[in-house]
Amino acid sequence: MPRPALRPRPRQRGAAMLIGVAALGLAMAALMVLDVAHVFSQRRILQKAADAAALAATQFVEPTCATATPTARSVAQQNGLPSSGATTTATCGRWDPQAVAAPTYFSAGAAPFNAVRVRLSRPVPYFFGLLGGSAGRTVTAEATAAITPVTTLSIGSGVAALTDASPLNALLSGLLRSSVNLSLASYQGLASARVRLLDLVRADPIRLGTVDELLASNVTLGNLLLASANALGPSQALAVNVLNSLALQAQTLNVPVAQLLNVSAPTDAAAAEARINVLELLTVGAQVANRNNFIALNTGLNLGPLASLSLGLRIIEPPQIAVGGVGTSAKTAQTRLRLNLSLLNLNLGVASTVIQLPLALEVAPARATVSALQCGRTFAESRVQLAAQTGLASVCLSRTAAGTLNSPETCASNAQPATLANINVLGLVNVGLLGYINLQAINPSATPLSYGSGAAQPVTDGSYRIGTSLGGALAHALRPGSLQLSLDTSGVLGLVAIIVNPLLSTLIPLVEGLLSTTLAAITPLLDGVLALLGLDIGYADVNQIRLQCNQAELVY
Q: Which of 72, 214, 298, 413 lies 20 to 30 Å from 35 when distance is taken between CA atoms?
């Protein structure tokens, strides 16, 4: 049987050509990818150069921007920009999130300058020229950096002029609910110490990551003081020892940090670099921890056998320390203060009695608001502008003033006189001694304050008084005509009235004289306590103006 003939295997024509074309395509794609990667690599380098150039040029925005472009070009070349074939443009202007539209918030040429926009461009040649037939492409990078000035301020604490430890010891003893007896040197050590917010955030026992986390937290005042001590370190030994001692007395007091610090810095880094006065942190923190609590204050004043004095306060709204730029506000506390003075065993000629004098002082917050900040090349060329306003104050002696500090109508305009005493005259009748004071709110206008270039005051830490003192809160309340005394003789009738009424006519001037003499003795101490709380009527102290100008940051 014949064998079948073998058929030849079919030949695969053109397969090698297809493989070659595919390989060539892949090679060309790889080469194009290399060109694209090279372009993007050069763009990243150019962006880093633009960032560095903008940060450097921002230091030279004032006064004319003349050196901004040369500075930007020099720094860009140090960071990879070729010295030939590249262009550098630096534009000075103003970065202001409050006044300029998003997303850049930058207005070119707007004065006063606080920012620089740097634009870099350079040609980047292709290695292989396979992208559209061109030899390369031009890449650009842009960066905007701004100096974000930040100031730290408070108003009305009175710590800048601290000359006596007694009022502050009395205040802190009441706020911390334990005895505080520090020396003047200890308080001055606290007043001279400043803690950086970033160090406070990172210090034990707080140990948080950012300023925002600190502001969102509730910490005990004791832990806040311990963290302040750890943040200061051994170079501030006096302040550290005092803080560690006070921290043991403040572990039960809770402080919502957002109520203590009003931080509205333009950037997180600027906020982190802000520094807070340690004594301000202590006194304001103690007030925040005692918001809405009644606080009995031990004045330490010995009035002898003729009089006794009690003093208490209620913090309706706590004060705040401010950290930030334009628009940031610091404020004092909204507070009610109760003074109860008892004049004992007074011999009024026709009678002996005890007189109770319940005075109430109600104060709305004083405020200081940053209206403008301008950083120059030096502090002498820098400028701070504030608008400060003293608080609204009411002083009253009335039936409601003798009641509870919780009453919303403590100094109501329609309040009735208080009964100060029941006087037994000649053993015949009891006569009521009525007293009334109602000085309604003193409505101050805002006072502009300017410091720095062109101003009388330099930009330095300090305390600046606004308004005009009215001679002390109590002296103002008891000025001639303010205290209205009267006698309730409704129960005195007939022949007794004929005998008693002429005698009673001598009582009022006698009582007025006794009250004025006694209150004159206690006014300095009380005014010291009021000053520490920011409750001086008619004026306020704007404290701790601290301008930080070295915060150049990338903002776009």
A: 72
Residue 483 has, within 13 A of its CA and on its CB side, a CA count of 24
Domain that holds residue 58: 27-146
d(CA 320, CA 388): 14
One domain for residues 362 and 233: yes
Q: Read off the pTM.
A: 0.67
Q: DSSP letter string over 259-274?
A: HHEEEE-SSHHHHHT-
What is the DSSP secondary-structure string of 176-206? Answer: HTS-----HHHHHHHHT-EEEHHHHHHSTTT
- Residue (of 463, 446, 438) closest to 532 by Cα position: 463
**Dist CA 399 CA 402 (whole Å):** 5
Return the number of other C-beta atoms located less than 10 Å from residue 556's C-beta. Answer: 16
Residue 6 belongs to a domain: no
- Kindly state the average pLDDT of the residues 117-132: 78
Residue 245 confidence (pLDDT) above 90 = yes
392, 396, 402, 405 alpha-carbon torsion, rounded to 10°: 0
Question: Average pLDDT for residues 17-32, to the nearest whole number?
Answer: 70
Cα→Cα distances 300→65, 161, 181, 331, 345, Å: 61, 21, 11, 29, 22
**End residue of a domain, out of 146, 164, 183:** 146
Distance CA 238, CA 229 (A): 10
Banded pLDDT at 225 (limits 50, 70, 90):
very high
3-state secondary structure string across 459-524: CCCCEEEEECCCCCHHHHHCCCCCCEEEEECCCCCHHHHHHHHHHHCCHHHHHHHHHHHHHHHHHH
Compute the C-alpha angle 65/67/68, nearest 5°: 65
Is residue 544 domain-resident?
yes
CA distances from 77 to 45, 86, 274, 317, 553 (A): 11, 10, 33, 55, 20
Distance CA 264, CA 285 (A): 19
Could you tell me what percent of the chain has a pLDDT over 90? 14
CB 253 within 8 A of CB 176: yes
Instruction: Give the pair of three-digit tokens for residue 407.
Output: 């009453």
Are both 253 and 367 inside the same structural domain? yes
Same domain (yes/no): 234, 367: yes
Is 139 part of any domain?
yes
Predicted pLDDT at 544 = 57
Amino acid symbol at 201: V
Q: Which of 375, 386, 384 is nearest to 452 (CA)?
A: 384
Task: Name the more confident of 387 and 464.
Answer: 387
Residues written for the chain: 556
Contact at 8 Å (CB) between 295 and 234? no
Q: Which of left, alpha, beta for 504 (phi over 0: left; psi -120 to 50: alpha)?
A: alpha
Q: Which of 86, 114, 146 is the last residue of a domain?
A: 146
C-alpha distances out from residue 286 to 231, 260, 545, Å: 19, 9, 22
Tell which residue, 214, 266, 216, 256, has the closest CA to residue 370: 266
